[in-house]
Every structure is written in structure tokens, then in C-alpha cells.
Amino acid sequence: MSSLPRCPACNSEYTYEDGDNFVCPECAHEWPKLAAAEATEAHKVWKDANGNVLQDGDSVTVIKDLKVKGSSLVVKVGTKVKNIRLVEGDHDIDCKIDGIGAMKLKSEFVKKN
């Protein structure tokens, strides 16, 4: 796997370095190496289903019935979850739900209280 960033214009993986720039051979887009370094240093912003920014310790409400994988349990609509923790990955919320226990949720299925 290449350590070079993907092209910001066309998302091509075939970028290469040319002096102080990165170049995309597919769309001919060029951008400075400094811009790529600054983009990787910026931290991720998590948003709920309504576009509100989430932070560690927030309380959220589930907006859709969610089946718990490997179990017959279901997290019902309207379930309130307190003190969430945001993590990198597909399921980006670590939390503990009363009656179910520790689990991970996707931020697209919750709304901020």
C-alpha cells in the first residue's frame, strides 16, 4: 500500500511526487506536499444524523431500531445514551447502554440531546 495521499480532485490512488508537489496522472491535478501534511494533522469531526458536532461525554438518542449482532436484543428508537466516547473507525461511538451493556454505534444513527 502506498504512503502517498490520494488525489483530492478525483480520488485516484496513483499519485506520485514531483519536487515539492504531488501529481495525479489521471486528472493532472497538482497540489503542494504541505497541504497534504496539514490535512492529515487536522482532527476528525464527528457529526450526528442532523449534522450537529459530537464530542466526548455528550448524551445522544438512538433514532432507529438497531439489532445487536449475535443476539436477539434490539436497541429501540428513543433509547438515551449518556457519556459517549468518540473513536476512529466505522462504528465511531463507544458507549454503555442500560440493559444491553457496552457496544459501538454509528454516529449516523443517533441525534445529540
UniProtKB/TrEMBL annotation:
<dbReference type="Pfam" id="PF03831">
    <property type="entry name" value="YjdM"/>
</dbReference>
<feature type="domain" description="Protein YjdM N-terminal">
    <location>
        <begin position="3"/>
        <end position="32"/>
    </location>
</feature>
<dbReference type="InterPro" id="IPR013988">
    <property type="entry name" value="YjdM_C"/>
</dbReference>
<comment type="similarity">
    <text>Belongs to the YjdM family.</text>
</comment>
<dbReference type="InterPro" id="IPR013987">
    <property type="entry name" value="YjdM_N"/>
</dbReference>
<feature type="domain" description="Protein YjdM C-terminal">
    <location>
        <begin position="47"/>
        <end position="113"/>
    </location>
</feature>
<dbReference type="InterPro" id="IPR004624">
    <property type="entry name" value="YjdM"/>
</dbReference>
<protein>
    <submittedName>
        <fullName>Alkylphosphonate utilization operon protein PhnA</fullName>
    </submittedName>
</protein>
<dbReference type="Pfam" id="PF08274">
    <property type="entry name" value="Zn_Ribbon_YjdM"/>
</dbReference>
